[in-house]
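Why predict the complex rather than its parts? Because the way molecules touch one another can change local conformation, and only a joint prediction can capture that. The input here totals 975 residues.
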Amino acid sequence: MDFPVEVILFLFLLATALTVALLEDLFAAAMMTGIFSLLSACLFTLMDAVDVAFTEAAVGAGVSTVLFLSTLALTAQREKQHPFTWFPLLLVILTGACLVTGTLDMPHYGDPKAPIHVHVAPEYIAGAERDFGIPNIVTNVLASYRGYDTFGETVVIFTASVGVMLLLGHRRRRPGPAHRPTITPEGAARMRDFAIVRVVSMGVIPLIVLFGLYVQFHGDFGPGGGFQAGVIIGAAVILYGLIFGLSTLQRVVPSPLLETGIALGVLLYGGTGVASLLMGGHYLDYAVFDSDDPKHGRHLGILLVEGGVGIAVTCAMILIFYSFAGRALAREAFDEGGGGQ
Amino acid sequence: MNAHLLVLEVVVPLMAAPLCMLLPSKPAARMFSIAVAWITLYLAWSILGALGATEHGVIAYELGGFPPPFGIELRVDWANAYLLLLVSGIAAVVLMFGPGSAGAAVAEGRHAFFYTAVLLALAGLLGITVTGDAFNVFVFLEVSSLASYSLIGLGRGARAPMAAFSYLIMGTIGGTLFLLGVGLLYQMTGTLNMADLTTRLPDVLDTRTIVLALALLIVGVGIKLAVYPLHQWLPNAYSFAPSVVSAFLAATSTKVMYYVLVRIIFTIFGAAFVFETLHADYLLLPLSLIAMFGGSLAAIYQHDLKRLLAYSSVAQVGYMMLGLTLASATGLTAGLVHVFNHALMKGGLFLAVGCITAQVGSSAMGDLRGLGKRMPFTCAALVVGGLALIGVPSTVGFVSKWYLVQAALEQDLLSVAALILLSSLLAVVYVWRVVELCYFSEPDATQVEVTGRPPVREAPLGQLLPTWILIGSTIIFGLTTDLTVGTASKAAAQLMGVGP
Amino acid sequence: MSEVLGLWNYWVVIVLMMIGLYIMIARDSLVKKVMGLNIFQVSVIMFYVSMGKVRGGTAPILPEGGAEGVLFSNPLPHVLMLTAIVVGIATTALALALVVRIKEAYGTIEEDEIHALAGGDGMDGRSAVQGEAE
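Output of the joint prediction:
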């Protein structure tokens, strides 16, 4: 019975959330947000959502923590004290009470007879073997039955990187005192100068990339897929940038290349749909790719769209990092190699 | 082939966006996005035509070839076909506004990104409108929202990013509450398909969970629609955004959210449950009346033309909500007609402000003094648009209010009908302020010297043309109402379950 | 009593959600608001994942040697929440980009100070778009 484990994790989760609310040190709060994501990922695993757990761990504890820290390096480390006001607290308690009332008529946790377990989902489970031959049911629902949602999801991350690039694009006209990073790298150790960091990372980064590729292509069988792979590979590249400096990284992986990459990723996904249209099927109907063996056609389609997601997400992660890092530290200071906070 | 039109309507702008990003120059990106917007308009027009040829006025499309409720379904009836036409039409006209992206602080070499973001916002809005799947609405809602936040944050002046940030926080709360509401519906029925929800919901309508789901959906959508008192993000967002962006969003974004609300209340839950069992009108009717008066009163006291128009939008959302709350075929027709009409006038007016800010460099009320002589066509557009806002006969505003008053009288709500007319008087006040400054005030001599700009001239044709297309339409659709009222009444009949 | 056992984790999720909402509306630091947003979104994700759990079920991955008699948890909430996580990180990235721009414009990321610098919500006769010309 894993009941007590869940209870303990939930208690930790509550404590973490309260700590985030109360901490005035924003760096500490950012780390706590990362821990919050990790704890959530553990809970997701307990609730059988391994794909969600994987993604939450990679995104919440990885990417968003890096983004928070980059932002804090540019803005402020501490939150200012403010007098306490009652109105928000009352509003929140009232809303919470309404929500709790609303749950009273819900099917209980884990009830196998709940409507969601008897209406649509059984078809997905039955269809996995019959129509797809792909063991990971989440992957095939994601890429086929709800492939259009996943296309939308790829576009969401594309939209975010376009937005971030528009807002933080290389435009630094007025570098007044307010624009200097609060944390300057002078005081920080130069990561590049540490032989251990350098050597270890040179060994680790290829392994991370390799793992990312494994996640990309193993997504049919176990947890993982294009999005998780993109985040992991993106993180490896970002790690390289943190250690060897932004401009070194940009020489290896220039922005225009990534911009082309992200566009091609989205187009690969959408184009797979267009191809199925042209071959006489409905949009994103992969069965038409192989008229003799629809299973094989679907497999091919899923491989293509997952590839599109992987490419788009990898490029998006790196481009978002470029925008923050390029803005974050005066270019030459960052190139000293002390960018990682 | 007809059914493929539905998916193309979304996929064309969606795939055009990454292509647009790769274009090398600003004019190329601009021409490309204009072409894409016109293609979506053509597709929307074809969908409306195809719908007329169907027996029941519904076209459905199974994505991936999976039958609903297992796969995602696109489903168009008169209501969303009407919205598709509006959204793509506004995009086609507004994107023509040029040269330049009117007030957007875009870095050199990033102009293609600006048009990419506009295309993404357009694709997101079309995606929301065309889909028949509740969760899919959330996905496309986020596509259009994220694109809108970035576009608003690009406004010149220090306050644009803060306006965008506030909108982002409010909008994300709204989006997440919507997601939770969809989750509760899913929890109780096991389906995400709207048509399937309609058939499965009656079994569980008496549960508290479903009431909560409805409340969450209304609040979530209400935030994005700027229903009073959830409208606080709107005035700043529209005032500090680049003018073209204000014109586009004011004319499309809130309209699509209105459609989503109509879809939730009338198709998914059914008007009988929402208004007769739960009496949501007891809450919504006073709120729409407060919005009508509060928004107009606030508009009167603004010192900036853009901000005045933004507050006027809050009031206009009140009129639309009033139509919905009356929960009759006439009321819904009035609401939907006003959606179309208000999009034309607000889009045109914000573009006129874009002309002014491009020439004068500001949209402060004080800078309008004597502008009628120097920018006669732009100021004339302001006047005609203003008359439409008031609801003068032969403009679209009159048509909307005519149906709205009729709907109120049908239900013997004399006081509501009177309040509609009374609130129009407030519009007279704020429109007159603009007219007075443009035509009956002399420019401030010192101000001209201080700014040291060249004398103000009329806006170039590239800016005047789209402005006048929209403003001209407020007259055209004020005189011929076949398209607007015709389609809206068919949509209303369908939504009320009377059949076309 | 059965209610408590059957629904308690939804209630914990609601408390988490409300903590996130509280941070968003009560805190003045913009970065803190984004953190609240994160907690709020993750709670909703947890709500969906809780719905998908089937007692005695296992992760929805077909084991080798056939799925006969295996009880799976519902895959659909997992699929939906993968999308929601992506939306979450996209929103966070964009929000933080805006925070950086706000800091550059005002020199602070505390909401009350920004409003004080911007002269309240009113316009004080200044234009929203001073110097907008191309």
